[in-house]
Design brief:
Blueprint: E1 7-12, H1 15-26, E2 29-32, E3 38-41, E4 52-57, E5 71-72, H2 79-89, E6 92-93, E7 104-108, E8 114-118
Pfam families: Glyoxalase_6
Organism: Actinophytocola algeriensis
Keywords: Lyase
Length: about 120
C-alpha cells in the first residue's frame, strides 16, 4: 500500500488575503468554514488526484525558510507569462540561494511562503 498527496494545508495570518491570492493563482473554488478557515477545491474538470488547499489561521508570522513548499507547473507551459501573472497577483521573487541555472523560479506568496514555478515536468529530470 502507498499514500498520495490529498491536500496541502497552509497556516496563514490573513485568510482573506491568502484566499484571494491562492484561489486566483490556482484557479480553485473557495469554500469557507465556520472556523475562519477556507478550503480551495480544484475545478470540476481537474483529475481526481489534484490536491485541495486548506488555509487555516495560524495567528503567528512565518519564521525562516519553509521546510517544504509546493512546486507548480504552468498549465500551458509558458513559465515567463505565468511568473508575471503570479507577481501581479501579489507574489514576489524569493532568494533561497539559487544560482540562476535552476529548472525553476522561486517565488513567495503575499505572506512570504516560498513556492516554485517549474520550467519542465519533474519526471523528465
Amino acid at each position: 500500500m502507498t499514500v498520495r498527496f490529498a491536500q496541502w494545508t497552509l497556516d496563514v495570518q490573513d485568510v482573506d488575503r491568502m484566499v484571494a491570492f491562492w484561489s486566483q493563482a490556482l484557479g480553485f473554488d473557495v469554500r469557507r468554514g465556520d472556523d475562519g478557515a477556507a478550503k480551495l477545491y480544484p475545478p470540476a474538470a481537474a483529475p481526481p488526484d489534484v490536491p485541495t488547499l486548506w488555509l487555516q489561521n495560524s495567528g503567528g508570522t512565518k519564521r525562516g525558510k519553509n521546510r517544504y513548499h509546493p512546486d507548480l507547473r504552468p498549465a500551458d507551459g509558458d513559465v515567463d507569462t505565468e511568473v508575471a501573472r503570479l507577481l501581479e497577483l501579489g507574489a514576489r521573487h524569493a532568494d533561497v540561494g539559487q544560482t540562476g541555472e535552476e529548472a525553476f523560479v522561486v517565488l513567495a506568496d503575499p505572506e512570504g511562503n516560498e513556492f516554485c514555478v517549474l520550467k519542465r515536468e519533474p519526471r523528465l529530470n
